[in-house]
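Complex record, two chains
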Amino acid sequence: QQQVKQSPQSLIVQKGGIPIINCAYENTAFDYFPWYQQFPGKGPALLIAIRPDVSEKKEGRFTISFNKSAKQFSLHIMDSQPGDSATYFCAASRRGGYNKLIFGAGTRLAVHP
Amino acid sequence: DTEVTQTPKHLVMGMTNKKSLKCEQHMGHRAMYWYKQKAKKPPELMFVYSYEKLSINESVPSRFSPECPNSSLLNLHLHALQPEDSALYLCASSQEGGTDQETQYFGPGTRLLVL
């Protein structure tokens, strides 16, 4: 029940393409779903986050789609650029849990010029 | 300034050594975290400090000993580590006490190699 399942494990797209990364969870107590981006040699950095009361959230070229009934959420990167090449982690947490993040396994994205 | 700093960047130690990792933030954050990250894996939570008190210990072996001397500083004392403890150790902080969901700001990590 604590798991967050993420797919695909790796993804290659051409510049301008729209990579989509999917995550699914089981624990209905989760109510905060952030995405973190990690470049090699760096710590993860928050990219965008969503709560279950909305079905979609956009920040720049990044969009989260959220399907509460299916317990799934996904990250779309519009007009992807080589600089977006990184590892992306979805995560989930619940209220009162000392902000404990349950991370997905990660997706290594490569955007080719 | 949204920076979390960690020292050293790299550390090589033998199984009998004692060493410490240091993490510092000057954002006034009241929660600080230690994570362990193996290659090609997600970060794994080790400890959470909320208002300088240990709130979560994820059943971490006693050879890892955290310390929070003040609200800006977090240490991880290492003793008698095993080769499988080699990993990237990440520190993070968040604004409030960590009792509600909030952004965690990660440092760049200390890459540890245990020989």
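Note: The radius of gyration of chain B is 13 Å.
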